[in-house]
From TrEMBL:
EC primary class: hydrolase
Keyword annotations of the record: Calcium, Glycoprotein, Hydrolase, Metal-binding
Keyword Glycoprotein: yes
Chain intervals for the UniProt region annotation (Disordered): 448-475
This protein's name: Arylsulfatase
PANTHER family: ARYLSULFATASE, ARYLSULFATASE B
Length: 475
């Protein structure tokens, strides 16, 4: 079934639901609201429930009141994880496994992919909002959230956005749906405020999907002065220096100025995480205030590990963003649903962003896309009715995969049960496991697809369209 057929069948189902008996309509209304909160470059050691000095009481609250996903895996960089989360498929199937959608790239999440938002739209989720960082295609309006199943968007298409001016490559990248939006303020606060407004507006019109993709604590390193002071900002000390990276004639990381920079990178980063955590608290409070917390699923996760040079920490895990070590692909994650899930549970089964779509499909009764999914429903695991599968294999990319006990990283084998920090390569001692994992990797990689490139080709002297209006690139 292609995307058009899938959506048409969904419309037919929605039309048919108008004729269902009241009893079935009432059951339809019992579907949970779904809130997905995504942090950007948040490291393993950047949440207080992992022992960090950074205070994250609201993220900790989701963990305390729900199920902590101790072995939750993602891709090592931004765009691939976002694509995986929304599609339930390995991004290598559509050419997005490596790299991100930068201002100079022409690829994105293929329009033919059936997204989580489209799937939920077919089973009565009338309100589907994407707030924050999209990062799944910058070269055509066919890549944007409105074209990918969301019916409301507030945020930005690019990564590395200025937190205060909301500009990237000199153009405003802040939108309400497809129109430029000049809202003054710190981007993290604006996204939290918009999320609360959405919840207030649709709390009596459930169910809804709310996807909040914060750009924090990704660079540029910019925090509010009050948050910096909470982490020891000293006005008499100097601030961190800005670093610019050039590609061709254009700055990929331009000079964002001095606004928002603290005494150290870690201090600034900590303040950025604190601001995000505060807004997560506001989202949770809005659910409480509107008395819909009980039947609202809240998923929190990071898109990849942190970057030490940008203030993040993945200790004691090895590596970080851009790598396939645990510190790059194993991230803080938890899910809360008071109506159905026990609180205070730590789940050690191997799970990942690729599992979210099939899990939501089982919970909501939605028909899964017929394209091959790489994730599986973890609903039984979340409820404690199923044990972890020791034979489950999860592809991580670049000749790497993980199981409950074993992990192979480009030919190097690690026993994570006895060596969780990947210090000892034992590939020569367990050739049977190496063979098993390599066969799995070859099977997955044999189905790699091509990138979906849309819009005009770009060069190093590319200038973005006015106010990052992607529609202008299609003309």
């Amino acid at each position: 079934m292609n995307r058009r057929s899938f959506l048409s069948s969904g419309c037919a189902l929605m039309a048919g639901s108008m004729l269902l008996p009241e009893r079935l309509l009432a059951k339809e209304a019992e579907k949970p609201n779904i809130v997905i909160v995504l942090a950007d470059d948040l490291g393993w050691n950047d949440v207080s429930y992992h022992g960090s000095e950074i205070k994250t009481p609201n993220i900790d609250r989701i963990v305390k009141e729900g199920v902590e996903l101790e072995r939750f895996y993602v891709c090592p960089v931004c765009s691939p994880t976002r694509a995986t989360l929304l599609s339930g498929r390995h991004p290598l199937r559509y050419g997005m496994q490596e790299g991100v959608c930068t201002p100079l790239t022409t690829h994105g999440l293929p329009p033919k992919e059936v997204t989580l938002a489209e799937m939920l739209g077919s089973v009565g989720y009338e309100h589907r909002a994407c707030l924050g960082k999209w990062h799944l295609g910058l070269n055509s309006q066919k890549f944007d959230p409105i074209s990918q199943g969301f019916n409301y968007f507030y945020g930005h298409y690019n990564g590395a956005l200025d937190y205060f001016t909301h500009k990237r490559y000199g153009q405003l990248d802040w939108h309400r749906n497809r129109e430029a939006c000049v809202d003054g303020g710190y981007s993290t606060d604006l996204l939290g405020r918009e999320a609360v407004s959405f919840i207030d507006k649709y709390s009596d019109d459930s169910p809804f999907l709310l996807y909040v993709a914060f750009n924090a604590p990704h660079g540029p390193m910019q925090a509010k002065r009050g948050d910096l002071e909470d982490y020891g900002f000293d006005h008499d000390k100097g601030i961190i220096k800005n670093s610019s990276k050039r590609r061709g004639k254009r700055e990929m990381q331009p000079d964002y100025g001095d606004l928002g920079r603290g005494n150290t990178v870690r201090q600034t980063y900590s303040a950025m995480v604190a601001a995000m955590d505060e807004q997560i608290g506001n989202i949770l409070n809005a659910l409480d205030k509107n008395k819909i917390s009980e039947n609202t699923i809240v998923l929190f996760q990071s898109d990849n590990g942190g970057i030490a040079n940008s203030g993040g920490s993945n200790k004691p895990l090895r590596g970080g963003k851009f790598t396939l070590w645990e510190g790059g692909v194993r991230v803080p994650a938890a899910i809360r649903w008071p109506k159905k899930l026990r609180s205070g549970v730590k789940q050690n089964a191997v799970t990942g962003a690729v599992d979210i779509l099939p899990t939501v499909a089982e919970i909501t009764g939605a028909k899964k896309p017929e394209a091959q999914l790489d994730g599986r429903s973890i609903w039984g695991i979340l409820k404690g009715e199923e044990k972890s599968d020791p034979e489950r294999k999860l592809y991580l990319g670049e000749r790497s995969a993980v199981m409950q006990r074993w992990k192979i990283n480009k030919g190097r084998l690690f026993d994570l049960t006895n060596d969780p920090y990947e210090k000892n390569n034992i590939a020569d001692k367990r050739p049977d496991i190496v063979k098993k994992l390599n066969e799995f990797i070859e099977q997955v990689e044999s189905k790699a697809g091509e990138k979906c490139n849309l819009g005009p080709e770009k060069t190093d002297d590319f200038a973005p369209p006015k106010d990052w209006n992607l529609g202008l690139l299609d003309k």
